[in-house]
Each structure stands twice: as structure tokens, then as C-alpha cells.
Write a structure and sequence with these properties.
Blueprint (H helix, E strand, L loop, with lengths): L1 H16 L4 E5 L11 E4 L2 E3 L1 E3 L8 H5 L4 E4 L4 E4 L8 H9 L5 E3 L1
Antiparallel strand pairs: 1-2, 2-3, 4-7, 5-6
Length: about 100
């Protein structure tokens, strides 16, 4: 777990050393692919996603409400925004997820 956080923080540091120009935000329309919205910064694609291991614990939605919400039909968290995925709130959500369901890939 600590290795994942360290790798993630190094990844954030490398990206922050580049210019932070947003080039494109692309959202998919289908429900199944809502988590797969793509956020591009300087031609580097980063996707915030939640996999099927989600246990509906609400931790991510409480920590980063601008990026996550809870879906009452599926009883899973959903990604609602790809903006600010380099924020400390998203990093904390990834770190605190009890089943490691949240990732940036």
C-alpha cells in the first residue's frame, strides 16, 4: 500500500513539473463507461476509475465530493469528474480506499 502511494506521489510530482496546460477533456456518454472519462494534460492520458471491488463505504465521496458520488442503484461509487485528479483529496481517497478500488491509469 505504501509503495502504491509513493509511486502515485512520484507520478504527481513528475506531472506537476511539466506545464499544466489542459488540452482536452473527453467524456463518454454510456453508463458503463462513465468512469472511463479521459482527462488529457500535455498529451498524457490520466483516467480516474473505480473497479468492481468497491464496497460502497462512502470514504471517497466524503473526501473528494467533486470527483466521486455514490450510486444508490448499483451500490458502488462513481467517478463524476476527471478535473483536479492530481489534488490531495483524490490522492487521499486512493490511499484510504479499504479495497484498493480507486486507481489512476
Amino acid at each position: 500500500m505504501k509503495q502504491k502511494v509513493l509511486i502515485f506521489m512520484i507520478f504527481i510530482w513528475i506531472l506537476s513539473s511539466c506545464t499544466q496546460t489542459e488540452t482536452n477533456i473527453k467524456n463518454t456518454n454510456s453508463k458503463e463507461n462513465k468512469e472511463q472519462a479521459v482527462y488529457k494534460v500535455n498529451s498524457i492520458e490520466k483516467v480516474l476509475q473505480i473497479d468492481e471491488k468497491c464496497i460502497w463505504c462512502w470514504k471517497c465521496a466524503r473526501i473528494a465530493p467533486l470527483n466521486f458520488k455514490m450510486n444508490f442503484e448499483t451500490r458502488k461509487a462513481e467517478v463524476i469528474s476527471q478535473k483536479n485528479i492530481d489534488s490531495t483529496e483524490v490522492a487521499r481517497s486512493i490511499q484510504i480506499c479499504p479495497v484498493d478500488s480507486i486507481s489512476i491509469g
